[in-house]
Amino acid sequence: MKISQVAAQLYTVRDHCRDAAGLKQTAAKLRAIGYPAVQVSGIGPIPDAEVVAILRGEGLTICATHEPSQQILDEPEAAIARLQRLGCRFTAYPYPAGIDFTNAAHVETLVRKLDAAGAKFRAAGLQLGYHNHAIEFVKFRGAPVLEYIYAQTAPENLSAEIDTFWIHYGGGDVVEWVRRLRGRQTCMHLKDYGFTAENKHTWCEVGTGTLPFARIIAEAEAGGCEWFIVEQDTCPGDPFDSLRQSFDYIRANLVS
């Protein structure tokens, strides 16, 4: 992994990106930390042209986005048009909102729509991915539903955006899942898994938790992953401090 492949997920600093002025300040801070790129997600209603101008003006590449789940399934053309406006190739289906994974019809419809939407993204020269949480480890026909999603969609239509924290939280082996999706993973969320003295899980800065990131990154690189995106759902203090800590660890221990 090269430092040029590391990005920050703007969802981590979503409370600081509610308007254009906040986004500009955020972009400047992230660039000062050293991040060369960002994933656009969780920001306020800022016109796309302004988002592009702000981020490019601060020297940040837009490596990926998250678009609304229902829009991807039912109006993929709108999501495609947004990616084209942003000059961005990758997006991901962010969360299975309204999907009951114990309902076969729901699962089969989701898979069919993801594959169909992904084909439209591919025709436009773009790539649709699937961003997992832990809910996809609910069993469906004897295996985690995440297995079914990838088995029943064409790799060229649906790539993987593995979230390391949620794979582990759901009971999966992160290294094994990265290996399983070799050649299919375009983006990855680097998110460490911690545990508190109160016997609760917690999101933590990369390198401060329990996940074996050296092995994870090695497998992801072997599989052709293009972007390694740092995300932390909640932070113990200033989220910029957390993003800096993660970036410093990555630069010192994980990049080649």
Q: How many DSSP H or I helices?
A: 10
Mean pLDDT: 97
At the third CATH level, what is the topology name? TIM Barrel
The percentage helix is: 40-55%
CATH architecture classification name: Alpha-Beta Barrel
Strands in their spatial order, largest beta sheet: 1-2-3-4-5-8-9-12
CATH class: Alpha Beta
Overall number of domains: 1
CATH superfamily: Divalent-metal-dependent TIM barrel enzymes
**Structural class of the secondary structure composition?**
alpha/beta
Q: How is the quaternary structure best described?
A: single chain
Q: Which strand-content bin applies to the residues?
A: 15-25%
The biggest beta sheet reads: 8 strands, parallel, barrel
SSE pattern, N- to C-terminal: EHEHEHHEHEEEHEHHEEEHEH
What is the radius of gyration computed over CA atoms, rounded to a whole number of angstroms? 17 Å
